[in-house]
Design a protein that fits this description.
Shape: globular
Largest sheet: 6 strands, mixed
Number of helices: 7
CATH architecture: 2-Layer Sandwich
Distance between the termini: 39 Å
Order of helices and strands: HEHEHEHEEEHEEHH
Strand order of the largest sheet: 7-6-1-3-2-8
Helix content: 25-40%
Strand content: 15-25%
Structural class: alpha+beta
CATH superfamily: Peptide methionine sulphoxide reductase MsrA
């Protein structure tokens, strides 16, 4: 396992600066709600979303904290199954991006709300082929849509955020049809929960969870009642 992590550069200063960018208030105040969204389901309805926003460790942990999200899996999207292996993806030549597959109950959280968290605290959507200390197309910002409805919501929200100049730079996120999602190696799953003191996690990902709690407390999983 240790050899696989040699590709994960630990840059304390760069990582801290990258995270500090996330969830910063816009000039208008609170990060805007999507003006176009999927309808809230009337009854339990499990759907999936596949998003890429840099290293999947922190992105996975962010979405696991949301009410209505049942499961989040780290994996690869954008390339072929035969190249969906960490060491190969790390070359930047496979077409894959480190991604997460989110299974959520559409009666409790909408696709647009997932995107709101994705753009505001999960990563910096203005970075092109990098996130914090990680560089290469495997760390690109990408939405892999499963249907036309997801495509339309994603494109509309990007246009909304760009028009409102929420970020100082244009959003670099690509919106691409999902051709396949391939689960990453077992040691990548639940990495933040299992290794909360790992230096990369401490400086790059734990601040994202703090931002999530600060910016979107109403979307967090509710503590079980006794």
């Amino acid at each position: 396992m240790s050899s696989a992590f040699t590709r994960r550069k630990i840059s304390l200063i760069v990582g801290a600066l990258a995270v500090a960018f996330l969830a910063s208030p816009t000039a208008a105040g609170k990060f805007p709600e999507p003006t176009r969204d999927t309808p809230r389901a009337a009854a339990r309805d499990f759907q999936t979303a596949v998003l890429a926003g840099g290293c999947f460790w922190g992105v996975e942990a962010v979405f696991e904290g949301l009410e209505g999200v049942g499961d989040v899996v780290s994996g690869y999207a954008g390339g072929q199954e035969k190249t969906a292996h960490y060491e190969m993806v790390g070359t930047g030549r496979t077409g894959h991006a480190e991604s997460v597959k989110i299974t959520y109950d559409a009666s409790k959280i909408t696709y647009g709300q997932l995107l709101k968290v994705y753009f505001s605290v999960a990563h910096d959507p203005t970075e092109l082929n990098r996130q914090g200390p990680d560089e290469g197309p495997q760390y690109r910002s990408a939405i892999f849509y499963a249907n036309d409805e997801q495509k339309q919501v994603a494109e509309a929200y990007i246009a909304q955020l760009n028009t409102a100049k929420v970020f100082k730079k244009p959003i670099a996120t690509t919106v691409t049809p999902l051709q396949g999602f391939f689960v990453a190696e077992e040691y990548h799953q639940n990495f933040l929960r299992l290794h909360p003191t790992y230096p990369y996690i401490v400086y790059n990902d734990l601040p994202k969870l703090d931002a999530l709690k600060r910016e979107w407390p109403e979307l967090l999983k509710k503590a079980p009642t006794k």
